[in-house]
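pasting Isochorismatase-like domain-containing protein for the record, 117 residues
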Amino acid sequence: MRWPRSMSRYTVSPSLSILPPNAQLVSFRRAFLTAVLRSMNKRYLILAGCVTDQCVAHAVMDACDMGYMVTLVPEATATYSQQRQDAALEAIKGYCRMRSVEELALELLQPAVAAPS
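structre below
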């Protein structure tokens, strides 16, 4: 697959995880990221990152508003103080589900369950 130059700032890992550049506050408003996720038929996202009360909070809310089911891993987020971290997590808890690394690992190891027909 050949990527246009404008997309070269994104990293796509071998497992098809998409890592947008960290210089953007609102990654989900970028047409490329949305197009890639939609073309891959992704509905569920796992988010983590730095500056929980800014970048992470915006990403969680935007992804939720765009119809994605978001899981946030709080212990894989950080910001400038514990007070800001706690306030950010409290503010976005209605937009996503939160799981620890251990809880998420256990979930991901479970066999997929077929949707009822």
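The beta strands are 11-12, 18-19, 44-50, 69-78, 97-98.
The chain has one domain: 11-102.
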